[in-house]
Amino acid sequence: MNKTTDGACTCHGLSYVDLLLRKSKVVREGERALSIRAQEDRGRAWAAEHGYCVRKVWRENLSAWSDVQRPKYDAAMTAVLAGEVPALWVYALDRFSRKGAEAVVPILGKARVIFDYERLDSLDERDRRWIIDRAENAREYSQRLSYNVRGTKSRQRTEGKWLSKAPFGLVADPVTRKLTPDRTPYICTVADRREVTPWDIVQRVFKAISEGMSSRALTRKLNSEGLRTGTGVPWRADAVRAIIIHPVYEGWLTHCPGGKAHRGRVPFLNSEGERIRVVTAETLPDMIPSELAERARRVLSGNQTISKAAPTPGRAVRALTSRMRCATCNSAMTLEGTSYACTRYGDGAEACADPAFVTRKAIEKYVVREWSERLRHTDDHDPLLVAVADRWHALTRPEESQEIADARAELKAAQAKLDKFHADDAADFYTGRSARYRIPHKTAAESRIGKAEKRLAELVGNGGPVSLSFLLNGHGEAYWNTVEPQMQRDLLGLAIDTVTVTKSPGRGHRFNGDVRVTIAWATPEHAESDADNYKQAA
Questions:
Q1: Among 202, 276, 324, 485, whose Cα sits 20 to 30 Å from the Cα of 504?
Q2: Is there a domain that residue 472 lies in?
Q3: Hey, is 266 helix, strand or coil?
């Protein structure tokens, strides 16, 4: 590279020129838009005809009107304005910028930019007015095009049409743009090589999460069976979460009101604040039920835990099994013969330093007596009474208890949703184009809380009083001795979480429960405001 006396760069006696090429990533101009390759051919032909040598080609595949950053445009402008290159060639003014006069005024009379299609030169005094006029025309066209596109998309969304690629497990009709479950079978790579469909996987994801399986455990299970995502890659926890939180699987049209900065899609609301279905009436019954979807979301977010209080086959029968703990190492104590023993006693490296042992007869007698006395001395304000009533309800009416647990979890999730709205509102999220969603989202969040509170009140109120008088009148120990072992265990579990035992001070010492035993009493899992509903238990 050589320089002339005026500082212009030359190549074999020719001045250099840069080429700035641009085409929108999403072609809005139609088929007439010139490709980047064709623009480059034109630019090189112009350079050869006018005695220039192409120094660098700046290629862009993005919009010139949106607020997206254009680092290659900035670099090309810096080079020509600083005199690093004598000229910059652009196919047309609308390829240069869609921001009007503000984009072209800085180069007029200061740097040479060639607009090939219009045959205009920024250093030519006669072209100044034409460049400004054409730049403003390009800006007006872009604004009109953008307005038309927004209007068309808004109308299509109001009609319930899915405008982008269908999410995993769904397919979009090419004409109506309505979504339906993707039941295209493919062979998974597990040994039995069974056929599965993407929609089978979606249904399985919702069911597994709603039943308490963690997203990581589910991904391990799916990957071990050879199942893959829509892009053919192994499943990850965030992919499972994306399915669970996406309202489209319930049949709702969704959007991102905050653009790429908004994490997660939300239901699209029309001008009346109503949700829009993206599936037909015939397809709606095949979608994920809203109850299942909401339950899965509550479990995934930690707003709901799966209760293990209801009786299940294979549960321990012995009264204190799984509740006993060694005070030294906090390990479980299991029944061996006639005694409970720390599971870590022995000669191994992990052995407990002072393992606890206690005879079954002595510990059960002591714990049952303490249990009965503790229940007898409860009052209406004792949290233990609420916990016992909850667990007794779960034990005797498991279906009703699960409904109440679901209702409490829904109320918690609804309150979290309203809190999120207030956080977004405080952060000025609902500004600009998103302002129209502020009131509908606020109304929807408050309405959800109202419905959840009403449902919980109905379930707790209609369940009737929980009768525990036979345990609270001082006859608990006598009643415990009359029932079968499984019920004995369940009765103790109403009020006791763990029983911790210390090592005996030595052989021959009489068992002293007041010294060696610590009982952790149950606490209510729900809000204190519900305690009044259980005062009738006494």
A1: 485
A2: yes
A3: strand
Please check whether residues 455 and 491 belong to one and the same domain: no
Residue type for position 523: T
Same domain assignment for residues 197 and 276: yes
Q: Quick one: pLDDT band at residue 154, thresholds 50, 70, 90?
A: low
Q: Are 401 and 391 in contact (CB under 8 A)?
A: no
- Rounded CA-CA distance 423/421 in Å is 5
Whole-structure pTM value: 0.42
**Residue found under tokens 């109403």:** 494
- The H or E element containing residue 376 is helix 360-376
Domains in the chain: how many in total? Answer: 4
Place of tokens 């469909």: 197
| The pair of three-digit structure tokens given for residue 323, joined into one six-digit string | 């509740």
Range of the domain at 123: 2-144
Rounded Cα distance between 387 and 472, Å, is: 14
In angstroms, what CA-CA distances link 388 with 286, 312, 324, 484?
Answer: 41, 19, 19, 20
Beta strands in 433-535 (DSSP E): 496-501, 517-521
* CA atoms of 188 and 204, how far apart (whole Å): 15
Biggest CA pair distance of the chain: 115
Phi, psi of 88 (to 5 degrees): -125, 125
The model's confidence at residue 146, banded by pLDDT at 50, 70 and 90, is low
Q: What is the mean pLDDT of the chain?
A: 78
Report the helix count and the strand count for the chain, using DSSP H and E: 17, 19
pLDDT digits (tens, 9 = 90+) for 106-125: 888 888 999 998 899 988 88
Backbone angles phi, psi at 404, to 5 degrees: -65, -40
Query: What is the C-alpha separation between 148 and 94, in angstroms, rounded?
Result: 18
Residue 373 CA, distance from chain mean position: 47
